[in-house]
Automatic annotation (TrEMBL):
Its EC number is 2.4.1.187. NCBIfam families: wecG_tagA_cpsF. It holds the Pfam family Glyco_tran_WecG. This is N-acetylglucosaminyldiphosphoundecaprenol N-acetyl-beta-D-mannosaminyltransferase. The keyword Cell wall biogenesis/degradation applies. Catalyzes the conversion of GlcNAc-PP-undecaprenol into ManNAc-GlcNAc-PP-undecaprenol, the first committed lipid intermediate in the de novo synthesis of teichoic acid. HAMAP family: TagA_TarA (MF_02070). It comes from Paenibacillus terrae.
Length: 253
């Protein structure tokens, strides 16, 4: 077992990606401490697709390795850790962690900044967050349709708002590298990529039914709802085969 020097979090390396071995409760406690520290912390919710992407792209792998906390969001990541004899106690789903952070933040009157998705979705998300967590202040929001030219202005707006939490919904191939590149400039204590979470919170999309969640098959539900995702989903069986074929090397750094 490796212990991360930054957050003192026990991790297991999955093909070089240091995945947290904390359960949801302990993960939340670490992030509460992160907010109190006021130092920038990037949280990545890792799944097999992201691990495979990191293996193919050194820059993406660098972003993963430099993140302060990587939680086992994908069922495949949890399975891999268990398969190689370094089990994690439970899946820490990014969508659930987002809600846990907002719920905890009510007690501390935290401020959250929402970045990503469309203007309509982010507006509806902000309203829903206000309804569900009245103790949280949505101190700012911006859609995800901006490029490198606008980065400076977006960063300035976030710094001005001075949030405790920054949730970024721009897709894993964009949100993680963007946070990683600018986290020191942003200066937000907890920054997390949340993918399609705003769509679900706003009501635009539905989360997988409880049965799919219980069977750890949310990926299958998403594929059934969006068949166009099949090419991306091919990384899942490739990851499983790689873990089984290279069992002795999975945890080598």
């Amino acid at each position: 077992m490796k212990v991360d020097k930054v957050t003192n979090v026990p991790t297991v390396p999955i093909f070089g990606v240091p995945v947290s071995r904390l359960n949801m409760k302990d993960t939340l406690n670490v992030l509460i401490q992160a907010v109190e520290s006021r130092r920038p912390h990037q949280v990545i919710t890792a799944n097999p697709i992201m691990v495979m992407a990191a293996l193919e792209d050194p820059m993406y792998m660098s972003v993963m390795k430099q993140a302060e906390l990587i939680v086992p969001d994908g069922t495949g990541v949890v399975w891999a850790a268990n398969y190689v004899g370094h089990p994690v106690p439970e899946r820490v789903a990014g969508f659930d962690l987002l809600h846990e952070l907002l719920a905890a933040g009510e007690n501390y009157h935290w401020k959250v900044y929402l970045l990503g998705s469309t203007s309509e979705v982010i507006q509806a998300t902000a309203q829903r967050v206000h309804e569900l967590y009245p103790g949280i202040t949505v101190c700012g929001k911006h859609d995800g349709f901006f490029g490198p030219v606008e980065d400076e202005a977006v960063i300035a707006a976030i710094r001005e708002a001075n949030p405790d939490l920054l949730f970024v919904a721009r897709g894993a191939d964009t949100q993680e590298p963007w946070i990683g590149k600018y986290k020191e400039e942003l200066g937000v204590p907890v920054m997390m990529g949340v993918g399609g979470s705003f769509d679900i919170i706003s009501g635009k999309a539905k989360r997988a039914p409880k049965l799919f969640q219980k069977l750890r098959a949310e990926w299958l539900y998403r594929l059934l709802k969006e068949p166009s995702r099949y090419k991306r989903m091919l990384a899942l069986p490739k990851f499983a085969v790689k873990v089984m074929r290279e069992k002795e090397n999975v945890t080598k750094v």
